[in-house]
């Protein structure tokens, strides 16, 4: 017996020593077995990147929501006096069906099916996600056993209908592991889905079998990495002006569709872009089968707005003589007849200037004859038609320059047959507004890693090959302005109350799907491509309205003008372009003062009529805005930053735009409340401030600003980089 029990003892001891030495029992690594039993891992969600406007205003972001789960296993209630699992599926379904998008029958079937399969818990799919805090509390008030909530993130579009076809939307969908993840489905959300998507983190810790953290157990945390933030050139305020104007026109005229773009006339930055019909991205209400961004992905026959580029080509070629006469009414080419828009009656023998002001098709045919059709088609390509602009958006259409036959080249002069995109029209117009320098349109300002603050991509204005000279551009501007002011002008309706405008109207036939064209005042495409103010254009605005419903007394240009005039006038006021200074102010090129003495720089700039805002009054200039080489009105405001203490200026009357520039350069945490112009500030002028000094500023709209509040006299071209 002694030998038997002694042998067993030594055998058991040997076994213990072997396990202790090797850590292996029955072929399994015990440390791994223990880790799997006690180690826990919790996922830390990463936020999807924000989409932000040029002024730092959030357009799209993630917001906190909740996900609902039903615990259905009786194991959850072990060692608990109160039930922790669903004990009455019917009652649970009756309550939940009042709050989520599932019927009682669907909920009961889901719960019972998973109870039979001995599942521990069950989710409710899409219906159980994106639950608001208020709804969660309402459900909790029913004290349903087993119904629990976990924090989740929901994509929020706080502005509703807001450049919806540009921004797009993102939705949650289940991946292969059954986990829900947000995926971009349209627009920028889809294009930049990879950049916007963050990387989840995790927390690893040891717990007991019930999931409670063990005493003195260490937690290993891997921080989540949020998705990249995308900053747009879009200006939220101007975009809202555009959305409101389109909504009003849609309600009043019920057109088939509309498209509108507002661009910076100097840089090609897109400040606003929208279309109708549109949709609500939070709910997708109104989303039709057309998911295309009409401004870049769809082509149109532009009509008479194309005459802008025919005119510019003729002037550049030296064949434009405004006082020469031609016989209006009709023009015959190889048996085909071109007619003016008044049924070919014309206005007798008139000058070419009057012909342009009246939007005569025949005048364009004679100009083509003077410059040669091949030369003209070459200019059309120089203006960027027939090829992509290169805007930073996908699936851009090219359009087609129709020049196969002589008749095609004639009709192209007045925008019939040849197709273009609205964004091409904007690009071509920059050559007119920007002294012959054609600028590539763009909508992405920069992409920033919010985890590190690193700017991953920084877009700058891109100048393309100039199609015309500065002298030609100036002459075209003058002639376009006359279409608004002349007694013969077709654009009289586009005259603004406080600013000068220039541009060209368009009335185009719309092609039928099976060939041919629609005909009738309610089946045309009406448009206007314009700029303002004429003296130094700041904005280009292009508006198209397809097939509006018109009263007998209304013309097709009315809905176009209502959109253009409202948006342009409000935007110029918002940008603080002062109409009373325009006749006296002339554009100058901003000099480079970086590295120069700040006091001497201030004196030099003010000697040129510029107003200066000083940020830090010591030593040399380390930063300036606008940047060197930028065109600015001679009475405009410039910002120069030096070193030393920063004294807070008197912000009263400042525009929000200039406030954002100051905030960026001074690196002061300024909280901006309201829209329009500054009426109040929390710290008095002259206070010494730093990056740790909070400042609150209150703004009011132009209508709310008192008559005695001084407004800045300035023109600012673009926001500085943060």
TrEMBL record:
Keywords: Membrane
Catalytic activity: Preferential cleavage: (Ac)2-L-Lys-D-Ala-|-D-Ala. Also transpeptidation of peptidyl-alanyl moieties that are N-acyl substituents of D-alanine
Listed EC numbers: 3.4.16.4
GO terms for MF: penicillin binding; serine-type D-Ala-D-Ala carboxypeptidase activity
Major enzyme class: hydrolase
Gene Ontology annotations of biological process type: cell wall organization; peptidoglycan biosynthetic process
PANTHER family attached to this UniProt entry: PENICILLIN-BINDING PROTEIN 2B, PEPTIDOGLYCAN D,D-TRANSPEPTIDASE
Subcellular locations according to the entry: Membrane
Protein name: serine-type D-Ala-D-Ala carboxypeptidase
Lineage, highest ranks first: Bacteria, Bacillati, Bacillota, Bacilli, Bacillales
Domain of life the protein comes from: Bacteria
SUPFAM superfamilies reported in the protein's UniProt record: beta-lactamase/transpeptidase-like, Penicillin binding protein dimerisation domain, Penicillin-binding protein 2x (pbp-2x), c-terminal domain
UniProt family annotation: Belongs to the transpeptidase family.
Residues in PASTA domain copies: 584-644, 645-701
The keyword Membrane appears for this protein: yes
Coiled coil start-end: none
Pathway as given in its UniProt record: Cell wall biogenesis; peptidoglycan biosynthesis
Species this protein is from: Psychrobacillus lasiicapitis
Membrane recorded as keyword: yes
Pfam families in the record: PASTA, PBP_dimer, Transpeptidase
Main location: membrane
Matches recorded under InterPro entries: Beta-lactam/transpept, Beta-lactam/transpept-like, PASTA_dom, PBP_dimer, PBP_dimer_sf, PCN-bd_Tpept
GO cellular component: plasma membrane
